């Protein structure tokens, strides 16, 4: 009769080892999903933010820029967080530096003329 209990404990021990394998099968898809999200969403967004920050820090007086709202202008004054744009001969508008969408390169602006 004692032999039956031993076989029962052996079977319970075998089930415990299988439980470790099932935890791995639950965690592995989560790790895989995080890796996919990182390489498809998070990493490209970080690169885009880094290039945007470098573009904003490289702005200087006289650069032609486009705001997020689509307004084209030339930088007249620039500080750490404020940009004054000349829209036409008399109109000057003040914007936050973060509202600049992109700078227009001078070579493409000259080729349009």
UniProtKB/TrEMBL annotation:
Pfam families: YajC (PF02699). The chain crosses the membrane at residues 23-42. The keyword Iron does not apply. InterPro entries: Preprotein_translocase_YajC (IPR003849). Coiled coil: none annotated. GO terms for cellular component: plasma membrane. GO terms for biological process: protein transport. Its main location: membrane. It is a single-pass membrane protein. Keywords: Cell membrane, Membrane, Protein transport, Translocation, Transmembrane, Transmembrane helix, Transport. It is found in: Cell membrane. Belongs to the YajC family. This is Preprotein translocase subunit YajC. It comes from Paenibacillus albilobatus.
